[in-house]
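Example 380, ligand zinc ion.
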Amino acid sequence: MRRIAAHYLIDRSQLIARPLIELDDQGSVVSVGEWERLDNIPMTEFYAGALTAGFVNAHSHVELSYLRGAIERNTGFGGFARAIGQVRGNYTMSQRLSALRAAMAQMWEEGVQAVGDIINDLSSLEAKSFSPIMWHNFAECFGLNARIEGVEELLSHSAELGLKATLTPHSTYSLQDSVLSEIVSREELLSIHFMESEDECRLYQGSGSLHDWYERMGWECDFLSHGSPARRIVNIVPRDKKLLLVHNCCLTEKDCQLLTEHFTHPISWVLCPASNDYISSLRPPVELLRKMGASIALGTDSLASNENLSLLDEIRLLGDVPLVEALEWATLGGAKALGMEDQIGSVEVGKRPGIVLLEGLCIEHGEPHLTPFTTSRRLV
Ligand SMILES: [Zn+2]
């Protein structure tokens, strides 16, 4: 049994003073109470700062960790995709493995409990099988000539290692309709890169850099008659599927409404502000989604388009969102997105959420804020 006390607990959008949390040897929460005088409670660890549940990184590509610093900022959407293709072959497998192991270890230390991780190759799987982090691997189907058979190996190898993995489509501009339809009929949970750039919409109108690139390469799309990325999702994805839509920088209110009305489960809108800033200086539609009462989660994307995999740094880029709310997106929001909310995401009796300490916060008029000195570290 472990007893942990602190100045504050930030949980489910609440700032709670003087928390006292009891956990069993497996890290399950046994009770959540309040302390009055610490010298009365034997065997209690006290921390100066605020506790929170472990974080959930709802969108990452940990296998791309070796590309940290390899691609310039502000190349734009098309430039980024081309640059990845150019530098990918310059690294040995041993460099790739040490980069992803280091990134995974740092995520755990900083308090990440679970990750929704996109996989396009086998490189990260063995390390994940030894990692204490909970992984949902999205084996991604990518490319206008892609077929599902091409990613079956990712699923079978994950299963052999006891890792959770499901098939997912990359986006609404990189797969033909027959493949997209087959994936969505097979899987319940889908993670789709969505409206990261205006070019996704413009492709359907016959313009923009994606359209020009496809035309130059002689690639044809069988899906442009849907009219827009949002329409394509509504036309193809059955309403009872659970969806993570990732990025959403160029989402309009109309499309948000169209998608929200189509699905019976709330869509998880996953925001990756540091990556958007890195690639194209765009911002995710934080205010629109808050206004719509949407379910929000946070992700870091990969180290190819981010300087680190820190959810605190993502929160720093969200603008004026109250910290208690942003922390809910970084914990329970992500847990709901990955269907793990019964186990993690909040400090509630029976869950094993991990306990993370935030140090260096500033608290003014009962409202916590991050400072440049705020850090997070795992206690449990
Ligand atoms: Zn991504």
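Summary: Residues 190 and 243 are 5 Å apart (CA to CA).
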